[in-house]
Amino acid sequence: MTYAYLKTNIQQIRKAIDSVKRPWTHPVTLIGVTKTYEADIINESIAYGIQAIGENKVQEIMRKYDAVAEGVAWHLIGHLQTNKVKYIIDKVDLIQSVDSEKLAMEIEKRAAAIHKIQDILIQINVAGEDQKAGIAPEDLPALLELISKLPHIRVQGLMNIGLFTDDEALLRSHFKKMRMLFETLPDYGYSNVTATHLSMGMSGDFELAIEEGATMVRVGTSIYGKRNYS
């Protein structure tokens, strides 16, 4: 089976990313969101230039890990339960969805056991949506203070799952809030907290997110096509 459409889609998305006027110069990382897609499709996208993939579920990482090409960066972008950290701590390069002190403590425990410094992002629920994970913006200082004492965790920035809305002004306002929080990270003065990655924006709004400061965008459907959940 041929997946030539992947090459076209990836090229078009990268062209769109490159054309967006952004507030800073560091490059934007394109993360291929691979939930429901099998290893053959993922490997084709890697061949066409995808260097980081994002999975929502621990079991999907475990199922696909050995079949996916070596060298790609694995990101856990979905909600992570503390009892499942042990299954992926040796596999993921970046956990984007840290949203509690309990989860941070478990990541520290499991990373220490394998002598690893685990890179993470803190997920912020900037819109205050009950159905979404993430901490409230006002809870960020306390979580950072706790993590500053955990030697096997390195906070590299923040992540946000945007609203499912066509209201561009509302989306933009939330992305702006995320960037403001992101830019405060160095002010805390913690050695294991940096403002390196701001992950926000998906297939429908990644260009807007980049305009407002995203350094990572998570794109699935626009690369791989419509998902089949059956």
From TrEMBL:
Keyword vocabulary terms for this entry: Pyridoxal phosphate
Domain Alanine racemase N-terminal: 10-226
InterPro entries: Ala_racemase_N, PLP-binding_barrel, PyrdxlP_homeostasis
Superkingdom of source: Bacteria
Gene3D superfamilies in alphabetical order: Alanine racemase
Residues annotated with N6-(pyridoxal phosphate)lysine modification: K35
Pfam family, one: Ala_racemase_N
Family: Belongs to the pyridoxal phosphate-binding protein YggS/PROSC family.
Matching NCBIfam families: YggS family pyridoxal phosphate-dependent enzyme
Main function: Pyridoxal 5'-phosphate (PLP)-binding protein, which is involved in PLP homeostasis.
Protein name, per record: Pyridoxal phosphate homeostasis protein
Species of origin: Fusibacter paucivorans
